Amino acid sequence: MKKSALITGINGFTGHYLTLFLVKKGYQVIGLGKEKKSNQNLIYYQSNLQNQKKIFSILTKHKPNQIYHLAGVFRGQNEQDFIKNNFLTTLNLLSTINQIKGYKPHILLVGSFAEYGNLSKKHITEQDSSEVANFYGLSKKMQTNLGLFFVKTHDLNINIVRPASLIGPGAPNVMLFGNLIKQIKNGQTKIKINNMDITRDLLDVRDAVRLYWLINNSSLKGEIINACSGQPITNRQLALEIKKRVKQKIGKIITFDENKKNISPIKTSVGSNQKANKLFNWQPKNNFSKSMEFIFEQELNLCVKK
Fold first, then answer.
1. What's the pLDDT tens digit per position in 100-122?
2. The pTM is what?
3. Could you say which DSSP state residue 38 is in?
4. How far, rounded to the nearest angstrom, does the alpha carbon of residue 14 sit from its chain's CA centroid?
5. What domains can you pick out in the chain, each with its CATH number?
6. Cα angle value 40/175/126 (rounded, 5°)
7. Residues 223-252: pLDDT tens digits?
8. What separation in angstroms does the CA of 11 have from each of 34, 37, 45, 94, 208?
9. Which of 222, 21, 205 is nearest to 107 (CA)?
10. 80: Cβ–Cβ under 8 A, 6 or more apart, which residues?
């Protein structure tokens, strides 16, 4: 029997790549999104996860084997936006699943490295913790605690993945990388960028969705797993890599306007992927250079052909 998977937030950045991955694996994919239509050829429902009756109807009709909960917001107009879209939607989803007698799908909740808060260090593990730095991190931490609560009290098959900064073609503008690419596509030669010395863990979105599937295809329950490269990349390194590729391909010289006043409280945030490696023998297949090549080929067509 063909396996099926439900993806919430399917029209987003990660949802696009996860759909491609699952379809290639032979899954029937059911998508939920806020938009009226999906660009992908699949079973699709417009839903913001606030309507529990609609969620119940969709789940009872399709009974997907796996659920990937990607829906949420990274930027909000106010604190209530984060709680509504990252926590309450998860509560609606999990409580609805729990109402369906005998239905025990494998559920993956997508958290964030923001849950580690003001922890500025290399090789952050799943056991590390700190006070959250913003409402986004708080809402994601609430989501994680909610998922673990449903595991303990209702025996649902839930795991949590915490991705680092994902990169790839189509990255949203609210993320640093997506914003830089947007500026270049708009023809700007003086690119605005935040503090050059901030260090982050950048992971290719293709490697991320592969790990998501490995987790949701396992017998694990109640685990928190980092999805990260484990390699530190500064904003300066990122800027120089972009500058080099733009110059080599089209001969355009770009410069960077550094906003030194925008100093993040988290100067260094780099994860450890030892747990994912131990459980699934997972390692990123695409290093920073390969990811950049993929991005420039697919989105900007600026990559140097080898």
1. 999 999 999 999 999 998 777 77
2. 0.93
3. -
4. 6
5. 4-166+204-227 (3.40.50.720), 169-200+231-269+286-300 (3.90.25.10)
6. 95
7. 999 999 999 999 999 988 888 888 776 667
8. 8, 9, 11, 21, 17
9. 222
10. none
